[in-house]
Amino acid sequence: MSTSPYRVAIRSEGPNLNFYWARTDTMEGAELIGHLQVSVVRDSPHIWEALQVLMQMVSVQKLQAMFPDAKITGISVTGAPEHERAGSA
């Protein structure tokens, strides 16, 4: 099974959660695709879950646009790579 060379990276930056379309192995050249104030999701797990589903849908749409002949069979949800985690980025 092959994996996507791209991902949605969700980063907490100041008062915002920023959503980036980025290569799997780097944030270099990442495209900001959305942002929301952290305070909106801090106390609402339902909003956080909905945002995660929305970002999965964005991933599918962007992958289909980039690779129209590819068959997308699933979306993998994982934590950030160690070198991008808070305190290391």
Structural notes for this entry:
9% of the residues are buried. The longest helix has 22 residues. Strands 1-2-3 form a 3-stranded antiparallel beta sheet. The model has no long low-confidence stretch (mean pLDDT 83). The chain has one domain. 30% of the residues lie in helices and 26% in strands. The chain has 2 helices and 3 strands, in the order E-E-E-H-H. With 89 residues, it is an alpha+beta fold. The protein is globular.
Give me a quick take on this structure.
The protein has 89 residues and is an alpha+beta fold.
Question: SSE layout and pairings?
Answer:
Elements: E1 6-13, E2 16-23, E3 31-37, H1 38-42, H2 45-66
Antiparallel strand pairs: 1-2, 2-3
Radius of gyration of CA atoms, rounded to a whole number: 14 Å
Question: What percentage of the residues does DSSP assign to strands (E)?
Answer: 25-35%
Q: Given the structure, what is the number of helices?
A: 2
Task: Please mark out the parts with pLDDT under 50 across 5 or more consecutive residues, or reply none.
Answer: none
Structural class: alpha+beta
The helical percent reads 25-40%
Strand order, biggest sheet? Answer: 1-2-3
Q: Count up the domains.
A: 1
CA-based shape: globular
What is the H/E string? EEEHH
Mean pLDDT: 83
Largest sheet: 3 strands, antiparallel
How many extended strands? 3
State the separation between the terminal residues, measured CA to CA.
29 Å
